[in-house]
Write a structure and sequence with these properties.
Elements: H1 3-15, H2 18-28, H3 35-50, E1 61-64, H4 69-73, E2 78-80, E3 94-95, H5 100-115, E4 119-121, E5 127-129, H6 143-148, H7 151-162, E6 165-170, H8 173-179, E7 182-198, H9 205-213, H10 215-225, H11 237-257, E8 261-271, H12 273-279, E9 296-301, E10 308-316, E11 328-335, E12 340-341
Parallel strand pairs: 1-2, 1-6, 2-3, 6-11
Antiparallel strand pairs: 4-5, 7-8, 7-10, 8-11, 8-12, 9-10
Helix pairs in contact: 1-3, 1-5, 10-11
């Protein structure tokens, strides 16, 4: 049984209650639904829609996210775009691996959507996913929430199968913590707090495409977000703060040049320390001059801004091999206030 067959079986097991079968029969104007016939007819159509990779290019960076797609496209080479939720992403920015995890996930999501009252069948047999009418009382969560809580497994599958630098991007630290639970793996969190971050809801794909064409703007955007790099690791705190002030100024100029609206927020990057160890000459740990303590580096204000930078250690369940340029495991792009125009 391949991934498409498993996905359709899960879809049917989750979604086809007696009530829903009655709904299908009414929608299609038939007396009785033959479940074996459904399985036989649905699997080829499901495989055709969900079984073909798109834009899965080795060594490129891909943001795996449901909530920060346009913002993520400013930073990463591509954005995860499963057929179930393509959301108008430009074709040359799409990435979908059609891995077993991705295919089964979409079957589960459709099944939960059916059971939660998100779907109806058209007379032609097409499944239409609509706004939720109620939360799924049996699963305790809406289908969309379930989809958002599987970003790590999707990223892992893309790394394994295609050697893609896939990074889950979350809208809150709480969302990240649901997938990256406490464990034995030692990771590092680089934090920028109280800075201007781009507002997803105020960003259009046309602006994303225009911004990506501006190599200087994109370079300056990346240098701030991925600030804990080889240029600052092992340097004194004063050097790091001065460097961040310069990077933040160029970052804001890049956003202002393209009229991107921002809000006050925070950016956290979960980093594999093996990357930082390779970038640093510090012996016995990663350091900013004097090395990290067991707790990390407390927040340090960046002169001339409201922004603060800090580093923390995290014991998280983690065994994956991260090969990306920045050793990045996951990113949090969190908003705190209403949007305003960057000047």
């Amino acid at each position: 049984m391949d991934a498409s067959e498993r996905a359709v079986r899960l879809l049917l097991e989750l979604g086809l209650s007696k009530e829903f079968l009655s709904q299908i029969e009414a929608d299609l104007d038939v007396a009785q639904i033959d479940l074996n016939a459904i399985m036989t007819s649905v699997v080829p159509a499901f495989r055709e829609r969900f079984g073909t990779p798109v834009g899965a290019v080795s060594n490129e960076s891909v943001a795996v996210t449901c909530d920060r797609r346009k913002v993520s496209a400013l930073l990463y080479d591509r954005v995860w775009s499963p057929p179930l939720f393509s959301d108008g992403i430009p074709r040359d920015l799409e990435c979908y691996g059609a891995t077993d995890d991705e295919v089964v996930l979409q079957g589960l999501t459709i099944g939960l959507a059916i059971r939660s009252g998100w779907t109806r069948f058209t007379p032609s047999g097409e499944v239409v996913i609509e706004e939720p009418k109620h939360q799924d009382a049996n699963s305790g969560r809406e289908p969309g929430v379930f989809f958002q809580q599987t970003m790590r497994s999707v990223a892992d599958s893309l790394r394994r199968q295609f050697r893609i630098n896939a990074v889950p991007v979350y809208e809150t630290t709480e969302a990240r913590s649901r997938e990256y639970k406490p464990g034995d793996g030692g990771l590092i969190i680089s934090i920028l707090d109280n800075l201007a971050v781009v507002s997803e809801v105020d960003l259009a794909w046309e602006q994303v495409v225009e911004f990506r064409r501006d190599e200087s703007a994109r370079f300056n955007y990346r240098r701030l977000v991925h600030w804990l790099d080889a240029q600052v690791v092992g340097k004194p705190v004063d050097f790091v703060v001065d460097e961040l002030a310069l990077r933040y100024d160029k970052y804001k100029r890049a956003l202002g040049k393209h009229g991107l609206k921002t809000t006050i927020g925070a950016i956290q990057s979960l980093i594999d320390p093996k990357f930082l160890a390779a970038a640093s000459a510090t012996v016995g740990g990663v350091g900013l001059g004097i090395g990290l303590s067991a707790a990390g580096l407390a927040a340090v204000a960046v002169a001339g801004t409201q922004m603060a930078c800090s580093i923390a250690r995290a014991k998280i369940e983690f065994e994956e091999q991260i090969d990306g340029q920045f050793g990045e495991v996951a990113l949090v792009h969190q908003l705190k206030e209403l949007s305003e125009t960057t000047g």
